[in-house]
Structures are given as structure tokens and as C-alpha cells.
Input
Amino acid sequence: MKGGTATPIVRPAWNDPVLIKRVLDIGATCVLIPFVENVGEAEKAVKACHYPPAGIRGITGSGRASQYGRIKNYLDDANENVCILIQMETEAALEQLESIAQVKGVDGVFIGPSDLSASMGHIGNPLHPDVQKAIQLSGRKLSDLGIPAGILTASEEDAQRYIEWGYKFVAVGSDAGLISMGADRLVKGFKP
Output
């Protein structure tokens, strides 16, 4: 993925320092840490991404991230060259949005609409008006704070609306969704 022009964002399975270290050591420079609900969890994520003294990331000088030791100042510059995105996916997390977003080292906040809708009592319905209102308010708050906000949607129309609400990085569609839609379209062309 490094051969392209986009920066890949890698989402570890959990806010776990061991998993985060593995993702960073293979060369990811942008991580999306899931299910952060409070300031302590955001601080834990940042520390897991940074080498000491700023963090707790274990040292490796000869891994893929440093081009197997060929980047001479890798350890000196790594903390400044990692992008840390925090994923907020619950109503409880959104109640602490400003404090979590302003944790030193957090570079952006990603709102998870599906889990958010479930936590708000509208499972499977991220387009419910209450959920959309929370998404809109979050985008505006983050924009006012100067913190980049991100979100995921399968709809181009929703993506445009989220951009209008202040979201700066909006994922439209997913690999699995695009493949299944393409497969459905192909099958439909061959069924009577």
C-alpha cells in the first residue's frame, strides 16, 4: 500500500499496546484505535503508539517500519510521524468528546455510526434522527476544536452531508460492500 498516494489507516483489533506495536512495527504510520470511551483510554492509545519517554512502545530498530534499520533517525522521528486516530462508538464516549479529542497526541476522531446507533438504542439504524443529530453535533464540535473528524458510510449522499457537518475524512463504502454489490449486479444480469 505504500506504493500509492494515499496513507493507509490500519485499525488494530483493540486498544491493546501489543497489537498496536505490531501494526506500527510492520510499517503503518496511521492507526485507528477502536472503542475509546474516556480520556484514560485515549491516553493509553497514545502511549502505545509512542516510544519512551513519551510512551511505552517497545523498541525495534530493525523492523519493516525502519526499513530494516536503514532509516537512521527512525527512533528519533517515529513519534512525530505516527498519526493516531481515536474511534468513538458509544453515547458515553460522545459525552466526553471534547476531553477525549484534546488528549495530547490524538490527531483525529472517527465516529463509528453503527456501534453508536446500537448504544443509543437504535441497533442497525445509524440513520435514525437521534443518531444523525449526535453525528452532526460531534462533527461540528470537532470542527470547532480544530480536530479532524472522520466517519464511515455506504452512501454518497450521506458522505456529502457529513462533509457539510464538518467531517474531514469520510470513508465511503467498504471493500466487502463493494464486492457484494458488484457480485449481486453480475448475478442479476444472468438471472431470467
